[in-house]
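Quarterly update from the structural biology core.
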Amino acid sequence: MKVRYFTNIPSPYRINFFNELGKKCDLEVVFEAEKAPKINNDWYKDNKIKNFRSIFLKKGIIEEQKINFKILKYVTKKCDVLVFTNYSYYTEMIALIYAKLLRKKYILQIDGGIISYNENIINRKLKKFLVSNASCYLSPSKETDKFLIYYGAQEEKINRYSFTSLYEKDILRKPINSKEKAFLKEELKITENKVILSIGQFIYRKGFDWMIKAYKNLDKEVGIYIIGGKPSQEYLELKKKYKMDNLHFIDFMSKSEILKWYKAVDLFVLPTREDIWGLVINEALSQGLPVITTDKCIAGLELINSNENGFIVKCENKNELLEATKCFFTKREQEIDLMKMQSLEKIKEYTIENMVKQQINVFRRNL
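Predicted structure, tokenized:
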């Protein structure tokens, strides 16, 4: 079976998935460009293309609002299955329109979606045209199903897949013990007894500004660590303003280094204003961490059950975030241990290996 995937850039989690998928089919992947703007180059350094053919339409940084017509020849080139992952970038948009004109069947695989109820009518109609013409869909969540249906997909054509960046070997079978945790804290130079971790770029969408404001009244013995590169002046000023010596900014790290941090801390918090998924949620759960995130995080809505393996709070509701955090840290040890186990139970099927099996099954049904 010959499969051709179209996507934007070689994100590390996609490369890992494509390498695994390439073991099960004859795979060719068409990338729009080599990189995205404003992303640390270290993010790509572990990329190794092994089990599939890669085609880059452009060297360097992707230009989302420019059309690269080179993509059209790969729409017509013979294969058994066509899969698109983007409908909003102009290059893939024109390819989708071209596929429709040629009456070519294609699958639309998306990582998540949030309905824009306030968008103008032209944008909504264009999105409906692009989304509704797929022969079937690969969706990671119930919220994404709603998104697809709103933009014209037929519910019976939607297939679930377990969106993840994790291999089976990455997921712990049981939480680490207190001795291992203490060793890791010492190695990472964590001095606080209770620790919160958050990960992401220091950009508005990630919501670290309102999280810091919410935590200005949190017990100063709780360490707050944000991994995401160099903080902007705004975050440094917030730390100074609220005299938060317990707030620490950590530079960019590799996946293997970050996994140590997940194991060493007690709670993961993602205060995002919008994430169509949020793979850091998968990663945190895989290391047995309870998670607090917002109602604007699709991964959270799919994977977190409040007061079981974490909490969902309203976006930018500082009091709700603070109270959920205090609630967690006042739980008994046995209750926290149960939350850790429930995190591992929830994420155990979210592996790259399972994602490949699910998609291969969908491809075969649509030949």
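The domain at 168-347 is CATH 3.40.50.2000 (Rossmann fold).
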